[in-house]
Amino acid sequence: MSINQNIKPITTKINNQGNLEIGGCDLVEIADKYQTPLYVMDEATLRGMAKEYKEAFSGLNVNMMFASKALMTSAIAKILYDEGFGFDVVSGGEIHTVYNAGVDMQKTTFNGNNKSPEEIAYALDLKVGRISVDNFLELALLNEIAKSKNIVQKILLRITPGIECHTHKYIQTGHLDSKFGFDLTQIDEAIQLILDEYKNLELMGLHAHIGSQIFETQVYYDEIGVILKEIKRIKDKFNIELTEINAGGGLGVTYTDKDCPPSVKTIAQVIKDSIEFHTKEYDLKKPVLYIEPGRSIVATAGVTLYTVGSSKVIPELNKKYIAVDGGMADNPRPSMYEAEYFAQIANKKEDETMQKVTVAGRFCESGDILIKDIELKNPQEGDILCVYNTGAYGYSMSSNYNCVPKAAMVLVNNSQSDIIIKRQSYDQLIENDIIPDRIKGV
Length: 442
Ligand code: LLP
Fold this sequence. Notes:
- By secondary structure, the protein is of the alpha/beta class.
- The chain contains 13 helices and 21 strands.
- Bound molecules: ligand LLP.
């Protein structure tokens, strides 16, 4: 089974104490040592997934670029870089973090639909490998900045391939009505501008991304087909053969047993088959392939630990809420996308009766519900709750709502645990706060 087809990290087990253990670390001890809420990343699962990708795509001329938006910390970047990944970055902050981790910036692609002039300048100064240009304004801006720095920047054009995948509408990106990329009808005008006017840009290829948490395989086949068809059209019209294609990310993971994503191997095979078929059909050379998986690399490796606090029973509805010490600020996905998660009590329970409860967060909002109607072993105040599959888009989308400091993150492996993100302090929360002199009074 592929790691993304598991709900739990591969090292998860019940130890001799009867507690849940990940990476050889007792989760109850970890919770006590580092406090909760706590993000826990299992290094073996993370590296395991990185290796699966490497194996599955072997035989292709491929650059694997981890989509930093799913989870960007210096330690995670270092691990994935060591495993052979480059990085898809979408902001000055992601560029800065990846650079801080010691990554060769040639192995990064800068994406985004509204990059600022400052971010572009920073990207050029650090020599990012590729910039995926999203629109006409950016083409002009990038050319101007590259010219001022006397650089010829290698670029891709981000295109909207017009493919719909069946995922949550907020995370579809490849369909016609999308804010991202050049519409297929705009590509020629962009290329003409690059050839005639934008002498500081070198067009290498096309980039698309069709969505996220994808369970289908045919959409990837079709996506590659559309990109290669465009490359053929461009070749015929402009007499240039683009050599690079970027297929984006999107492979789904298993949050609950309702989810059934394909394996990495299956997706890789579909992409290989499509390249094989369409390069023959259009008489093209085999392109250099870029892929940008985010969620599927980090989701399964991560869990979040919470401490159970208050509870509320509503007899009329035959319902029980249990509240934990985190929620929508450390994991906004349930309230944003109605995302579902699986969880278990991490500590040994003497009374093992299962109880159906709804897990509520601690934030001041009725919508701050982490999990609706889940069976847990008689959850009580003080228990440690382990929510699985939180490695992607949890920490990276976390906030300081209600002025609650951000949770810490630990990396576990071979019975060792190390802090990779420190818990935020109250002082850090207000370190950028300024009371202007004129309202300070005397
Ligand atoms: N490449 C591009 C250009 C993207 O826009 C994305 C994700 C990826 C790669 C990585 O996709 P992945 O392999 O992670 O599916 N916050 C949402 C997900 C937003 C995805 C945005 N783009 C969520 O929590 O479900």
